[in-house]
Amino acid sequence: MSGITSYTALLIILNTLLAINNYSCVRARPTIHVHVINGLTAESLHVHCYSKDDDLGQHLLAVSEHLDWSFRTSIFGTTRFTCEMNWAQGHGVFKVFWQGPTIQLRCYKNCIWLATATGLYLKDFSLDKFVFVYPWEKY
Predict the structure, then answer these.
(1) CB neighbours of 10 closer than 8 A, spacing ≥ 6?
(2) Per-residue pLDDT tens digits for 64-120
(3) What distances in angstroms separate CA 92 from CA 23, 87, 123, one per listed residue?
(4) How far apart are CA 123 and CA 113, in angstroms?
(5) Using CA atoms, how far apart are residues 35 and 83, in angstroms rounded to an integer?
(6) Single pTM value for the model
(7) H helix and E strand count, the chain
(8) Residues 6+ away with beta carbon under 8 Å from 66
């Protein structure tokens, strides 16, 4: 084989191995579900959630409505979703998912956030209850 042909064959083999490895990594990583629920009693909640790679857009949640999405985590441990939220009496920018033991112990693969008049609560499945995490910033 000539030098160029050997090089091309090596590149094809490496690309094939990388594709197989990436596919198996994607399949091995769990699917994470995030839910943001408007638990305010009489107000709409403006929500804009995003990560480094995905923008979920602007949403106006009526009372009791929710925003849900699912994704697989990064093999590098860098997945993070942030939500900007505001309503008549408060606002804030909140991390709603990040890769790490803190969030995994609390919500495992199903992170449920409840926005109330006092702030954001996360369903802690290890305790089987919602726990206070973030207060609102006042206008």
Answers:
(1) none
(2) 999 999 999 999 999 999 999 999 999 999 999 999 888 888 988 999 999 999 999
(3) 37, 10, 19
(4) 7
(5) 11
(6) 0.79
(7) 2, 9
(8) 35, 36, 37, 38
